[in-house]
Amino acid sequence: MEEPFQLPPAQASGGATIEALTSGGVQVVGCAGLGAPVVLSPEEAALFRALFLVADGDGDGLLSPGESRAFLRRCLASEPAVARCHALAAAATAGGDDAALGEAGWYVACRLCALAAAGVDLEGDDALPLVADGLREWAPPDFGDPPARPGAGGLIVKVMSPQLVGEGLQQFTQYAVRTRSTCAHYGRSEMRVLRRFSDFEWCRERLRRSRPGVVAPPRAGQG
After folding, report:
1. Which parts of the chain fold into alpha helices (H)?
2. How does pLDDT run across 122-163, given as a tens digit for each residue?
3. Are 111 and 91 in contact (CB under 8 A)?
4. 8: left (phi over 0), alpha (psi -120 to 50) or beta
5. What is d(CA 205, CA 66) in angstroms, rounded to the nearest whole number?
6. pLDDT tens for residues 5-21?
7. What's the gap between Cα 29 and its chain centre?
8. Is the CATH number of domain 155-210 3.40.50.2300?
9. Domains in the chain: boundaries
């Protein structure tokens, strides 16, 4: 059974703070330019936190302007809107429109993204206060994966059978990786190789660098 979404009672993020609510949601307080907290439903809080963990490719707890904008482009086609989402959120929560976003700033950016996706012009001075509008019916921004190309075929990859290899300082964990494919450009329909944990770390880092904004889930442990 999956664990319910939980957040520590208070989490600092730049100049703003995330506080848990008894309803199961959270509120972002301390945002510059906002006279009220940004209250998120439990569903919004769970979604935005999951997105933050995915977007934070290097795991440092901050989204650089590049990381933030790369992910926002998954939802918004307008580059000015993407830049404006980050700038407003950074100015409100981190003290500068080109600052990195902490988790609180990302929550505000997601609210701004939802507004832009709904057709709200973010260039106006009244755009930022709208993120704290508790009467608005909020539709979450769509960061979903793009559809597969027609005729692209399918690819199933399974990582299994972890084993310890070697002894002492030379010991490492090795996995069996089994691939089944119906892609026309694959020479074989089935393949099986052995890879160590560091290979997966290398692959994820290369993916993060070469394909900004691609969903690369946090890597699992070695067990």
Report:
1. 42-55, 65-72, 79-94, 103-117, 197-210
2. 998 888 999 999 888 888 888 875 444 445 567 788 888 888
3. no
4. beta
5. 15
6. 444 433 444 578 899 99
7. 21
8. no
9. 10-132, 155-210
